[in-house]
Amino acid sequence: MTTALAVGVMSGTSLDGVSTALVRLTDDPLDARLVAFRQEAYAAPERAQIIEAIARGGARDLALLHVALGERFAGAVLQLLAEAKVAPRDVAFVASHGQTIWHEPGRATLQLGDAAVIAERLGVRVVSDFRARDVAAGGQGAPLVPLADVLLFGHPERGRLLLNIGGMANVTWAPRRGVTAGAVAFDTGPGVAVIDAVARRVDPAARFDEGGERARRGKPARKVLDASLADPYFAAPPPKSTGRERFGPEYAVRLIDDVKRAGGSDNDAVATATALTVETIARGIERWTAARPDDELVISGGGARNPRLVELLAARVAPRPVVPFDRLFFDGEAKEALVFAFLGFLTVSALAGNLPAATGARGPRILGHITPA
After folding, report:
1. 126 φ, ψ to 5°?
2. 336: nearest Cα among 168, 209, 212
3. pLDDT (tens digit, 9 = 90+) per residue, 295-304?
4. CA distances from 149 to 179, 349, 358 (A)
5. Alpha-carbon span 357 to 239, nearest angstrom
6. Closest CA to 224 of 263, 188, 194
């Protein structure tokens, strides 16, 4: 049996910050155990730089951001290892998802965070650029979490839905742990990206809708919500994925303007964005998965920390049980960083890391590039 310590690094579409997870991995059976976890929030100027690069970045800006993010990720890994009292030499590899700058499903996907910089600073080999091979094989390049959902987090005896509410929301229907046949996964649409963008627009000092309080005080603008739900993305069948290119700051501005024209308040705009996330998750599950009404919905990600969002989602999918990921496994905020450590383990073991039923790729593919130490 092979056992290895690795670090997974995640910076998601929510642009909250950098998550790092120290993970113990084994190949018999395939397993991943969280050893330590750390989060570092992006400072406002850092977040603004990334948003600017996504919106209007030229070649020079993107090149400099690529290096800067590599330095940021390397620093975050060193902090994690220092707190865990683990030397870099004891880590088999670092698996870095990178920061998505552009994601055009089926055509191109671009993540920044120079793996060469990470390898140089840590003296550890780095697995990166996980999505490109799946896209080259005709896939969406996303979501990539589903294989881990099925292999690591599925129910041992029955079906389970695993929902991650990050910047975008993605759901996996796992028929049973370890059984990939019949598994379905896709991005349901916006998770917290639109909610956060609306909250920041109406209050520049806010990072997000703290405690879901603005949504709680507001009321969804029904006509605006109905118009938003008519977006063709939601009716499209899987495989499908999306990102900030479709549901980002510009989308949030339009939503706020539409709510204001309908006579709504700032809080109503946040409530409308929250209702959009809830409704698209629920409809996606109902329409595209084989989950039974009593199969549990296990939730993780930043959106799982929004009490109002979770409350509305639980009411919308009732009587389906809604269970926090933390209650069954470990801190749900660590899930995606751990998953990419697991995907990195598959890569260095020459095993496929995608789930073609989820991405639409022509078949299983070994993902990522390996940068030597």
Report:
1. -130, 130
2. 168
3. 999 999 999 9
4. 10, 19, 12
5. 7
6. 263
In a 13 Å sphere around the CA of 26, the CA atoms on its Cβ side amount to 7
Rg of the chain in Å (alpha carbons): 20
What one-letter code names the amino acid at 144? L
- Residues 252-266: tens digit of each pLDDT: 999 999 999 999 999
Cα–chain center distance at 181: 23
Residues contacting 151, CB < 8 A, separation 6+? 30, 177, 178, 180
Q: What are the distances in angstroms from CA 4 to CA 28, 75, 122, 260?
A: 12, 21, 17, 54
Domains in the chain and their CATH numbers? 3-143+333-371 (3.30.420.40), 153-328 (3.30.420.40)
Q: Is the pTM of this model over 0.85?
A: yes
Q: How far is CA 316 from CA 40, 161, 278, in A?
A: 33, 15, 8
pLDDT at 275 over 80: yes
Q: How confident is the model at residue 29 (pLDDT cuts 50, 70, 90)?
A: confident
- Residue reference for tokens 């929510």: 14
Q: What is the pLDDT of residues 148-192, one digit of tens each?
A: 999 999 999 999 999 999 999 999 999 999 999 999 999 999 999
Beta-carbon count within 10 A of 191 CB = 30
Beta strands of the chain (E only): which ranges?
A: 3-11, 17-27, 30-41, 93-104, 108-112, 126-128, 160-165, 168-174, 184-190, 297-300, 322-324, 369-371
The pLDDT value recorded for residue 78 is: 98
> Using CA atoms, how far apart are residues 275 and 216, in angstroms rounded to an integer?
11
